[in-house]
Amino acid sequence: MKSIMPLAMKLHVGPTVNVLIALRDLHFDPRIWDKPNDFNPERFIDERGTLKNIEHLYPFGLGRRRCPGDALAKSFIFIIFVGIVQKYKICLSNGTLPSAEPVFGLISAPNAFSANFIPRKQTL
């Protein structure tokens, strides 16, 4: 999805007009991100290992329609993910990395893939 008019153009948007932000285009813009199509989680972590506050990242939307549960969702995802990684070693079922190409629709989603969750040995 591309912009249909330059961003510098002055335009009046009436109160009944819906404006949609193409977040995927923003998140994959090569003017903002180095190699935007490469899977690189390190781009979000600073040299101390803490999460960067990135100005151009809007996973929960913008404006009045922004997800009201974004802080809760981030905390929940972190707790669940850490719990899974602590308890299981995650391996690919067939040894092949899944495709990074999303399935497009109203929202985008990753392609399906299989993984094995092998319980870690519990040490006390």
UniProtKB/TrEMBL annotation:
TM spans (from-to): none
Which residues are heme-binding? C67
- Going by the entry's taxonomy, the superkingdom of the source organism is recorded as Eukaryota
| Cofactor(s) this protein requires | heme
Coiled-coil spans are none
Per its UniProt record, what PROSITE patterns does this chain match? CYTOCHROME_P450 (PS00086)
Q: Which UniProt keywords apply?
A: Heme, Iron, Metal-binding, Monooxygenase, Oxidoreductase
Which SUPFAM superfamilies does the UniProt record give?
Cytochrome P450 (SSF48264)
Which Gene3D superfamilies does its entry note?
Cytochrome P450
Q: Which GO terms describe its molecular function?
A: heme binding; iron ion binding; monooxygenase activity; oxidoreductase activity, acting on paired donors, with incorporation or reduction of molecular oxygen
Answer whether the UniProt record assigns the keyword Metal-binding to this protein. Answer: yes
The UniProt entry's sequence similarity note says: Belongs to the cytochrome P450 family.
Task: Identify this protein by name.
Answer: (diamondback moth) hypothetical protein
Q: Which organism is it from?
A: Plutella xylostella
Q: Which lineage do the record's taxonomy fields give for this organism? A: Eukaryota, Metazoa, Ecdysozoa, Arthropoda, Hexapoda
